[in-house]
Design a protein that fits this description.
alpha/beta; 2 domains; nine-stranded mixed sheet
Length: 472
């Protein structure tokens, strides 16, 4: 029996009504497509030898570089967290041995990369990168700068934790050349914060935000999460209002991924999670607040001010996605360092060991610490390009793909277009003779649109495998 209940949402000045059953139908497990093929497809028999061969293929390349360093330590565990983190209050005792190995890995990798290649982007993630002291931050950055050639206008970013970041650390970061920050907030509601073990008052966050503005960081992003325990439309709306008083350049509004089979600590609050329509209503109200305040909905979970580089890249179709989400640095090879980190070249993905002992063992033995990876096929590259353009631009000119890959789009993707026909009936896409266009409603379900082109996705197995979080 079909329900007649409908949902309304105001998005960028456009009011959309759609049946509740659309939400129920498309809120299913699915990839986030920070890579294609996605990580579950990668192979355990891809190791150091395969990774070295892939790097050697780029020996003469002059393409720009993107670098990532994973700093996994946190002082306490946020119970919602799904990242690869190590909890310890023994800062120097755990960070010093890690930095020693990290620098060894950086040195070995740099020796295999054309020194003329310029670094256009550097990002430090975690964990909590500001778990490091100011002196350690400087030590690691100087090591990277000594082994790689940074472009004068390189984008240099870091994730910071307002509860554990000092003014001294911020001043050090700015002096070294860091120009972009991402502040973790998640939610300001006291009950939500207590439940997820992350007590972080607005005043504390504002103080570090204001310090960073005064120091001249060119871009500040704020991370929020909807779907956390005890959240309501009203409570999270108050959080968004407070964020808007800070006026960040970008806002990431992530859907909480409930995966207690992977992260056991999440089971502690399972009975208090907003689900289904209730969770979507939180997201809906947040979208309305952010777009009403002048932010552009880039797609999926990202919002930016109209003058931001993300918006300019979306306008000129140079926006792309990697393991940090949306980025303006298309065409870069991504080399990642540290435990669990993921490198991405044109033809290959490679991931380091997730466990610290195995990472240390590999580095101490003089090896590159690769746990698994994958060499992509020609078809993978084609489908990656299609999925990337859908998620980044919301419109896919068929001629663009035909020119790049030498195919007849409608013939090659006949089965995929047949799957999209159902999404067109549900008003998520428009199938034009020369293009595929994601509708305003479809932008909320962009992951579902991208899934139609995923030839490796076993749709019948999605729920049983429990690999991916739900799309909303």
């Amino acid at each position: 029996m079909r329900t007649t209940e409908s949902i309304a949402i105001d998005l960028g000045g456009e009011r959309i009504n759609f049946p509740l059953e659309i939400l129920e139908k498309y809120n299913q497990p699915g990839p986030r497509y920070t890579s294609y093929p996605t990580a579950p497809e990668w192979r355990d028999d891809f190791g150091e030898a395969e990774w070295l061969a892939a790097i050697e293929e780029t020996r003469t390349s002059t393409a720009p570089l993107s670098l990532y360093a994973h700093l996994p330590f946190c002082q306490s565990l946020c119970l919602f967290c799904g990242c690869n983190v190590i909890i310890s209050k023994k800062h120097e005792e755990v960070s010093a041995p890690y930095l020693a190995r990290l620098k060894q890995e950086i040195t070995r990798m740099s020796e295999r990369i054309n020194p003329a290649r310029q670094v256009q982007q550097l990002h430090w993630g975690g964990g909590t990168p500001t778990y490091l002291s100011a002196a350690q931050i400087e030590e690691l950055f100087n090591h990277l700068a000594a082994h790689f050639n940074f472009a004068p206008d390189a984008e240099i970013g870091i994730e910071i934790e307002p509860r554990t970041t000092s003014e001294e650390q911020c001043r050090t970061l700015r002096r070294l050349g860091f120009n972009r920050l991402s502040l973790g907030v998640q939610d300001f509601d006291p009950l939500v914060q207590k439940t997820v073990n992350r007590v972080q008052p607005y005043e504390m966050t504002k103080a570090i935000f204001d310090t960073c503005r005064e120091l001249g960081f060119s871009s500040i992003n704020v991370d929020l999460i909807y779907g956390l325990p005890h959240q309501t439309v009203e409570s999270f709306s108050r959080t968004v209002d407070k964020i808007l008083t800070l006026s960040p350049d970008r806002i990431a509004l992530f859907s909480y991924a409930h995966v207690p089979w992977l992260k056991k600590q999440q089971g502690s609050f399972a009975n208090h999670l907003p689900m289904g329509f209730e969770k979507f209503s939180i997201f809906r109200r947040a979208i309305e607040q952010l777009t009403e305040a002048g932010y552009r909905y880039i797609g999926m979970d990202h919002f930016a001010r109209p003058e931001d580089e993300l918006c300019r890249a979306q306008d000129d179709r140079t926006l792309t996605r990697n393991f940090q989400g949306y980025t303006t640095k298309a065409g870069c090879d991504l080399y990642a360092f540290g435990v669990s980190s993921i490198s991405s070249l044109e033809n290959v993905y490679a991931q380091n060991w997730r466990d610290l002992p195995q990472y240390y063992e590999a580095v101490d033995a003089g090896r590159l610490p690769v746990m698994r990876g994958m060499r992509v096929t020609a078809e993978d590259k084609l489908r990656r390009a299609v999925i990337n353009r859908i998620l980044c631009h919301g419109t896919l000119p068929k001629a663009e793909i035909e020119r790049e890959f030498g195919i007849v789009f409608d013939e090659y993707f006949a089965a995929d277009l047949a799957r999209l026909a159902e999404l067109e009936r549900d008003q998520l896409v428009r199938l034009n003779p020369d293009s595929i266009e994601v509708t305003t409603l479809g932008r909320i379900f962009m992951r579902n649109v991208a899934m139609a082109f995923d030839a490796r996705l076993n749709r019948e197995e999605l729920v049983r495998q429990r690999v991916f979080s739900r799309t909303l």
